[in-house]
Amino acid sequence: MASADKILKALSDSLGKRIIQTRTLQPGKSYIQVQTGAHKDAVRIVLQEDNEAGVSAITGVDLGETIELMYHIRTCDTIITIGAEVPKKDAKIESITDIFPGANFHEREVSDLFGVTFEGHPNPKRLILPEDWPENVFPLRKEVSVANIPSKIGNFGVSKDEKHVSSEERLVNIVLGPQHPALIEPEKFSLRVDGEIVRGVEPRIGYVHRGIEKAAESRTYLQDIYLVERICGICNACHAACFCQTVEAIMGVSVPPRARYLRTIILELNRIHSHMLLLGHAGLEIGYETLFHYMWRDRELIMDIMEALTGNRVIASFITIGGVRRDLKEEDVPKIKAELTKLKERLSFYKNLFESDSTLKMRTRNVGVLSKQDALKLGVVGPVARGSGVNMDVRRDEPYAAYNEIPFNVITYDEGDSWARLMVRLDEVGESVNIIQYALDHLPTGPYRVRVPRTVPTGEAIGRVEAPRGELFYYVKSNGTAYPERVKVRTPTFANILSFVHIAEGGNVADVPASFVSLDPCFSCTDR
Amino acid sequence: MKVKREMAKLSPILREVISQVFKKPATRRYPEVKPKVPAGLRGRQIFDITLCISCGLCARDCPAKAIEMVDVEGKMRPLFHLDRCIFCYQCAESCPRNAIKSSEIFELASTNKSDLVVKPKENSVSGGSQ
Amino acid sequence: MSLDLNFVFRVLVFPGFAFILLFTMFCDWVERKIEARMQNRMGPIYTGPVGVLQPLADFIKLLTKEDIVPFNAKNFVFRFAPIVSFSIFVFSFAFLPIDGASVVSGSNFEGDLILVLTLVSIANFLLFLSGWSSTNPYSAIGATRVLTQLLGYDIPLFILALAPAFLAGSLNIAAIANKQYVPFAFLIPWTFALFIINLQAELEKDPFDVPHAETEIVAGYETEYTGRRLAFLKLAKDVQMVLGAAIAVELFLGGPYGPIFYGLSAVWYTLWFVLKLLIVVVVTEYLTCIFARLRIDQVLVVNWKLLLPLALLSLAVTVGVGLWLNPL
Amino acid sequence: MKWARLKSPWVLHFNSGACNACDIEVVALLTPRYDVERFGILLEPSPRHADILLTTGVVTRQCADRLKRIYEQMPEPKFVIAIGACACSGGVFEGNYNVIGGVDKVIPVDVYIPGCPPKPEAIIDGVVKLLKSIEGGEQSGKR
Fold first, then answer.
1. Interchain contact B14–A (C-beta under 8 A)
2. Which of A38, A209, A430, C224 is the Cys-Cys partner for A34 at CB 3.0 to 4.6 Å?
3. A435 contacts A406 by C-beta, under 8 angstroms
4. If interface means Cβ-Cβ distance under 8 Å, which residues of chain C face chain A?
5. B117 Cβ under 8 Å from any chain D Cβ
6. Contact predicate A150/A134, CB 8 Å
7. pTM of the complete model
8. What pLDDT is stored for residue A179 in this prediction?
9. What CATH class does D2-134 carry?
10. Domain CATH for B49
11. What would the pLDDT profile of A94-104 be if each residue is shown by its tens digit?
12. Alpha carbon of A463 to those of A93, A476, A482, B107, D104: distances in Å?
């Protein structure tokens, strides 16, 4: 695992004069600006130096007459950003999907929202914006304001849908449509199926695209916390934590220790309820209603704790810039501990069930296998990566909140199939219960919040948090006013969804729901 | 045969399902039995008109623009649009006189949109129109 | 057959149509309650005393719904498949002795076991037609799965049904039920267990409920149906469940015949029949709750590689037991 | 006749662009603690079988047509419940470029349940209020 400065040295002596400037965004995060053509070599060098590295996100920033593209590359313990500028008129840049296939969706998203065309991209079709979106209107550009986009009230003619039987020889085109009992959220996968075998998968997301990054630019930082929290209802504490961390990094504010512990507690509660939700939903997908009902009944214990702690069962609205909004009362601690021990006993039943239930294993064992190399190549994050043996966890790689003081271990399985991914999540629930109990025992006293001015000094910062589905990445740029200049969110499912295409191909149609649910897709995260 | 080997270890679900039949169901009969709600629940806002100095900070800070300043007997008072409100209580935090307090009323469903608008006069200290 | 009142009463009311309908709804209610209790929740309680009228409420509500026939569906088959399959299921009840004698007294003849089993297969084939005729791709896939599963479990069903017939020495259901002073379920328990698993496949219950698997293919062959036709389709499914359990009771648990304490024998026979049938329903429901749904190719593997050889083996062993019981 | 319609309201859930906080509360209704099967409510997979359409989430541009088509596929006496601030009026996302607004901009809505997300008990309270309004004979004639 090469360390960061070794990579920087390798970059500077191989690129030499093509590097325009290097500066550090935050302690430990370096930013290297290169000429437009040289960005591909820079990315290739970083990937060669550290074989476990991967492009975490590609951010576009509108600088007036040029668009700045930032390739954030995740190495062992930090993020190295490579920047390249592209003129706005005919924005063209070379695609890096051939050296890092995982960047496929990132590039399509930037081309949708900024109008940068990536030469050599395998299928540069529209990913996020709806089909009837007017051509070359790119929402995230500064000059495009919400007012001058033709709204669509009234003309809801039934839009054309691909016909079901495709013209190619025997390939039936089954659409796992927007409204489908298996999916809580709308998204569309048109599977080209030959008999029972899936030949091709064409995902079409964007049904839940609410334009949050554009909306964040027209609201103050205080209002942005609530907006950002509602990107995904299941992992909302993580979005709030990551956004507040990034803004605190820009302002240089340090959060009191009690607030750091309270943040850790709410983040772990969020992880438990999200994992249990998924394990129950997986039961529903493979037709195992009993597991679904038991898992969700036991999950209610966690929902009661969150309701008592934050006032709402699901959307916590607990974390704010400078600390947390409510304090944990002393008399609540024993009650929470009692509920957690009850949960721990139930976990042993589920672990035994997942390991010995025959029909459940028949439906999840070696279904949707993702090897370690593919996981690294596709840049998958979180339990999906840990299920294939990639030992990666932001809580340990780059500790935030109180994770550097709390002992916990990262769980990895090597089988790489749906069963392994479900088992990773089940063990992580046990780990989270231990973390919360440790945090409750060592809760420091003192203030839980620091007063913070409304305006943020100019600067930019990167924030990373380990959401239940994986590494959540934030980039915030501020211009000294109370309104952020640019907020970039790369959610974990956005990185994982490409692996579904890879997993489903060659598999059985009846396996699609099982392997699909094991990725724990959260489409309100993906579409933002 | 693979299937037979898998069946070897009996899954714990067999005993669990039978034992569940004899246990009391975990259902709370909601309409008859009102749930015990934790103290800090973020339900409907209770607005105290006497404390309000009509400064409009709550309307400015509301992320969902659900508070509208309305003229009531010459003074501007906040009017809550419950259908737009996301119950985040940023208004209670920004209010200098903390005239807005949380309550445990969460049954707010209604068949027409008009009675989701809570006028300042109505829900002052007397506990609201509910 | 003179149209005397007794005949009409027997066919229309007591062991006939009305009784079967009410009993089917009662069984559906028992099934939903048991499944709810097994999942630690409550199940319907507000309709009727303890929610007993819930299936009735569902049925009537569906009758009053608007009736939509998809534009390019094959009209004739789409309209009549549910009703015909429902009536076939109810008709095949006529041969099962419920209160001592079969519904149409004297209608038992040698070989009516084969007739009932073929009627069940035909009715299932009609369910396939109902799915095939609605032009929705999901119901087309659901229909083909009904067919693949039908082929899979039908042959073992016939073979397993022959085992008790062989022990009783006749193909007449009433005779088989009569000859069981010791219920065959205890005599040849492995055949009874296989028959129950086969019943799970026939009723499309959990390990094998691939045809209308919600998560994969919306509602399988029921997707396009609404209103009256959906009501009869669901009722056909329920009657099939009761019929399958009734056949299992007749062949393995000694039909309605049980010790009579005093009073009218017909009443006691019916009580025994209802009790045994409820036991079978609870057992199938238990199996539903403890299994996850298998993939369609795994279902075929189980049917062809597991059920079929075991059925043949159990038939051979039953022949051995039969010879040992009353040597030729 | 009305008794049957009140006692077995079959439900279909469609998320037209929500952050899925309301969706997990709707699915939580089926689980043992709230168990809406007490009222005879079943979650139906296909719009053809459903009486009540539970919509969550703000209507995005791409979902508007799907929402309309699903509403049209449902057989008559059908009702719509808008769950959560986003479905009632667009909530926090009001005014974004890809957002049309509340559900009532696309299809007529019978019951609004505010809250972000509303508690499962609040959703049950909404359904009970809808059933009361049907019982009161007030047909959903607000087309």
1. no
2. A38
3. yes
4. 38-41, 137, 141, 206-207, 209-210, 213-216, 218, 289-298
5. no
6. yes
7. 0.91
8. 67
9. alpha beta
10. 3.30.70.3270
11. 888 888 888 88
12. 26, 8, 19, 38, 38
